[in-house]
Amino acid sequence: MNEDRITVYRRSALALSTVVITSALWMGVAAPALADPYDDGGSSESGDSGSSDQPADEPGGEAPGADEPGPGADEPGPEAPAEPPADEAPGGGGADEAPGGGADEPGAPEAPGGPADEGGPGDPDSNVTDPGVDADSPEPNVAEASQEAFDEAHSAEAVDVESTEASESEVTEVTETLESFESSTTTTSSSTWSSGVSQWNSSWTGYDNWYRPVFTNPYSTPLQMYYWYDDATRLFEVPPMGRAVLTAPDAGVYNFTAVNKDPSGKPVTVSTGSFTGGGYKPAPGQPPPAKPAPISTFKNVLVQLKYNDKLSKPFRVNTVADLGDDPSVGGHRVLLDNETPVWGTWTKTAGGERLFEVTSTNQLPGLTQPSQGPVAGYQVQLTSSEQTTAAPAKKAWVKPVIIVGAIAAVLVIGGIAFFLAGRRKKTTP
Fold first, then answer.
1. Structural domain includes residue 52
2. Given the DSSP bridges, would you call strands 213-217 and 242-246 parallel, antiparallel or unpaired?
3. Backbone angles phi, psi at 280, to 5 degrees
4. Residue 281 counted as domain residue
5. For a disulfide at 88, which of 84, 235, 284, 405, Cβ 3.0-4.6 Å?
6. Summary mean pLDDT of the chain
């Protein structure tokens, strides 16, 4: 009778331990699936500036007029208010910060983005570098000119220019011409993708005493500039080997297309850039313009194209300036290296590093709408659309659950063995 009971206990213990061990192993196998909440593609996670060795005043640097007049700055007349303080430079946050403000163009955010925005990248000081990410660091294709040409153009006296509204027929004609240039100069292969549109040279833009942008043209032909402002495509020209001061009193960050043509009118260089509006020279009795608001700028950021039919290998850019949520296009609008506009979503890699997933860009701002095209100024490496290079980290609770299950199994088996050993002692004659 005692032997029968012992046999029953042994069978029960074996069955129970099998169940516990199987459960623990099942949880271990299921861990990767439980740790990948972004498999559907959605996410709610939030040096060299070209050919110039002496860049123009940047929006985030010292204000023109601190020690000497800024590029293109007219001295205020006797009736004009005093100059803005020297520490109130446009952007106000260091040379690495992009111009600040909302944008008055299609899909423009109402206010600059920041760490507190929903879906934002978080605290800029809390970033980590994920050693597990194999990322490229491509040098942007920036508009260039010889140092001598830039020096000559930059030393010219800046002239005030007035933009004009481009007619519908003019917009259609120039858009078709530039799209033809873009398609003929864009290179695409099974592994790389780059645009014939370059990135505007940041050293060719400065700001005067009144926060107005000053553009330098180092070319021997007029530089045509297209941008969206006041619900219309507007155009102005920077004279050959000269400089031009533009007044855009509505605060915001504006993206533009700059076109350099040869004497026959054929586009030679097309580039995409950005400038800050909100500056104006005050009339007598008028208060001076307010300093443009700074925006959140992040350094050494991972970027990845995530289009419907294309996925790129992550690549690093020097800076990403977040202009805030843009519901008309989708996601956040940001500037890559303070110039190239793209739209997308902030997320994180498996190692916790912030990453910006690009869902659309605009190679001809002011003329065309954002689309899933190549990013002006960058050659990207394309990968398989099934490959996930920015998968989130595993959930913290998965590993502890596996450990707890294994410990429980050991305790159960040990308890049963102890119980059976005690029963044996009692039944032994």
1. no
2. antiparallel
3. -165, 155
4. yes
5. 84
6. 74
Can you tell me the distance from the alpha carbon of 70 to that of 53, in angstroms, rounded to the nearest whole number? 17
pLDDT above 70: residue 206: yes
Residue type, 49: S
Report the C-alpha gap between 120 and 2 in whole angstroms: 69
Share of the chain above pLDDT 90, in %: 55
Using the CB atoms, write b or e for 323-360: b if 16+ within 10 Å: bbbbeebebbbbbbbbbbbbbbbbbbbbeebbbbbbbb
Together in a domain, 302 and 410: no
Predicted TM-score (pTM) of this structure? 0.67
* Region 4-19 average pLDDT: 53
Phi, psi of 383 (to 5 degrees): -130, 180
DSSP 278-346: EE-PPPTTPPPPPPPPP-EEEEEEEEEEB-SS-EE--EEEEEEEEEEE-TTTSSEEEEETTTEEEEEEE
Residue 403 lies in a domain: yes
Neighbours of 284 (CB within 10 A): 9
Q: How far apart are CA 302 and CA 323, in angstroms?
A: 17
Q: pLDDT-derived band of residue 422, with 50, 70 and 90 as boundaries?
A: low
Kindly state whether residues 194 and 218 are assigned to the same domain. Answer: yes
Phi and psi at residue 207, to the nearest 5°: -140, 140
Q: Which residue segment(s) compose the domain that 140 sits in? A: 124-383
CA-nearest of 298, 282, 388 to 336 is: 298
Note whether 363 and 417 are same-domain residues.
no
